[in-house]
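Bug #2210: token dump truncated for Protein kinase domain-containing protein?
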Amino acid sequence: MRSYGGAAGGGSGGFKIYSEEELRKATNNFAADQILGRGGHGIVYRGVLEDSTIVAIKKSKMMEETETKEFLHGCCLEVEVPMLVYEYVSNGTLYHYIHGGKGLESNTALETRLRIAAELAEALSYMHSSASPPILHGDVKTANILLDGNLTAKVADFGASKLAPSDEAEIATLVQGTCGYLDPEYLMTCQLTDKSDVYSFGVVLLELLTGKKVICFDGPEQGKSLVSRFTTAMKTNRH
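Reproduced locally. Full output below:
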């Protein structure tokens, strides 16, 4: 659940070392009803600290190299794999905000959608150009974009990310990512580049502006991607 928001990313306030007991208390002993999400790399819990700050606490199966680069709220070092404490993002994912009836409907101000898109672009630009070494996300999608209480966007879930040597433009890797968002060139060559993230960002932008899912599961366009539907509509001058 690493996240980048704005130019510099990360949460606010100082970094703190927590005890395991503090995090157990914050999550009611890591209760099942406190789980925010599960992934291949661990489980994320909602927690309430003693000062009433709401946070997200990740119990990782392993510590990834990219994970240690993030500016965190804090961590716990009393366990075999450090537990990481992040700023809690109250509005969930952009995917659920678009498709779950929570707010990004047709009457949502265009300015709000464009602001979210601009924040995503800024975060990706920071990762690609300002982080040292640069970070290639590898799985940019609306389900990996979090929205805080002010609908500020944060790019999260770096399970497929790679640290790119500053003198190399691309990385040979097994293809990871999500159908509908994958860069076709990355899919064919297995070369992950910053352009792969930019392509996926373009799909997110389409999803954000149209409110349509990246893969159509019913109707005459069943099985077609949002990109193919959009390009067909552009060619036939449909909206």
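Output looks complete on our side. The chain has two domains: 3-87, 94-235. Marking as cannot-reproduce; reopen if the truncation happens again.
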